[in-house]
Amino acid sequence: MASLSLSKGHNLSLTKADPGLKRAMVGLGWDPRTTSGTDFDLDASALLIGADGKVRSNDDFIFYNQLQSANGSVIHQGDNRTGAGDGDDEQILIDLSLVEPDVQRIVITVTIDQGDERRQNFGQVRDAFCRVVNEDTQQEIVRYDLTEDAAAETAMIFSEIYRNGSEWKFRAVGQGYSTGLRGIATDFGIILD
């Protein structure tokens, strides 16, 4: 099975592309351009979203300080603080069979830690991508290479995996936020201290 490559805004039925898919690995990668000499620390996160477009509670925000959802359906594999090396910089595992019925979407985001303080943004990041791999077969199903110039933005929704009836689908989103993690959190109902 050859992987499909999507453009911004396009969708793919994961269920139709890989009917055996149960456990998905979402791999995210990026390479910072060297501009100021200050290290980039990009962080991947997943938000479990209900029918109202919001998280059910802060427990639905999966990131480096809360590595898995309450029932283990979504697991963050840990923080990569440098983005060094080839391949995935961070990975999020999703067991689709365990995702609660009231979760309609799993939104995948990447934010630049201390982006404002360090004067860093996605305009200084290149070769960003998001891909979905069947964990059981290790076959890549779909890939989205971000090509947008997001010069002022310090956070971005890369993609989402969502329900469509009995199907699971993937959407290449590529939506930037100049308000960083706080902007995404506010939009999806996370309560920050």
Automatic annotation (TrEMBL):
The source organism is Frondihabitans peucedani
**What is the organism lineage in this UniProt record?**
Bacteria, Bacillati, Actinomycetota, Actinomycetes, Micrococcales
Q: Which family is annotated?
A: Belongs to the CAPAB/TerDEXZ family.
Top-rank taxon, per record: Bacteria
Which Pfam family would be a valid example here? TerD
What is the designated name of this protein?
A: TerD family protein
The UniProt entry, under InterPro entries, shows: Stress/Tellurium_Resist (IPR051324), TerD (IPR003325)
Tell me where in this chain the TerD domain is found. 4-188
